[in-house]
């Protein structure tokens, strides 16, 4: 059989695109894309009423569209982009532009009479301000309530709690030793200020400082602290002695013995096991007790924000299997499904035992 012959394509020195192109942004986004599903399921226009008290109508420059800012923040969260990375990808991604109500022309050639892309610094400052006023907590409740009303979350919830460690945007080389300010008694402070006032009033203070002899220069070859050059050999770090200068809230943390400690945070989730709807999400400092403490706060918050549902059981790993935590679950009427740290069962649980009175024990 003779093989089909295909003519070789001609070689072009350069590709010349069309001078004018008519593009429909709506046709570029697939029907089942997650951004289209979110856009149809959530009404983001409610953000205008939530943030209205944070703005003034008489003074200041015109504010950026809060709905567009919220959509940009959601893109950054869903696809794990930093603000700088998001603004670099945005002109090349038609789905991102469509989700934010923008097009290619509005990004490449901004026009004040058409929707424009807010400045990146505006996005960062707005997110900080909204977080301080609880806008994101309100948004979380706004998204979960329709799931409950639609029946995705049943009235009797079987929940699960867990915490995930997240590395902070800070290098291990940014750690510096914490230097506490000395505590000075009031008497010493008054005595010191009195001496300084006497010296200020003395005639010697009228002398020109240029007449003083120069101070001796420090000896050459003085060794610099290891942390300043990034050489940490033989240096012990802990959260009590060191902090990151770029992110002071980050804490050195690791979950397993084989892991290395890095500046981290913890992100906590309480989800409905059946529907996998996230009922609550919070971030906290990375500490050994943060998972249990934050989950208790989340359970109480769910009861307050969503009174139509009741958490019956809670599944968690071995880190939650402490006596105090299980006791709090029983107090809230929640049955714990938690791996115990010890397999030996006690005849009387610790939280049911009567506290011993040292004075009474001494009389026996």
UniProtKB/TrEMBL annotation:
**Residue span(s) of domain Transposase InsH N-terminal:** 25-110
Amino acid composition bias (Polar residues), ranges on this chain: 233-243
Give the record's GO biological process terms.
DNA transposition
Q: Where is this region: Disordered?
A: 194-257
Q: Which domain of life is it from?
A: Bacteria
Gene Ontology terms, MF aspect:
DNA binding; transposase activity
- UniProt lists compositionally biased (Acidic residues) regions at 198-213
The residue ranges of the Transposase IS4-like domain are 252-355
Query: Mind telling me which InterPro entries this protein's record contains?
Result: Transposase_11, Transposase_InsH_N
Ranges of compositional bias, category Basic and acidic residues = 222-231
Protein name, as recorded: Transposase
In its UniProt entry, the species of origin is given as Geobacillus subterraneus
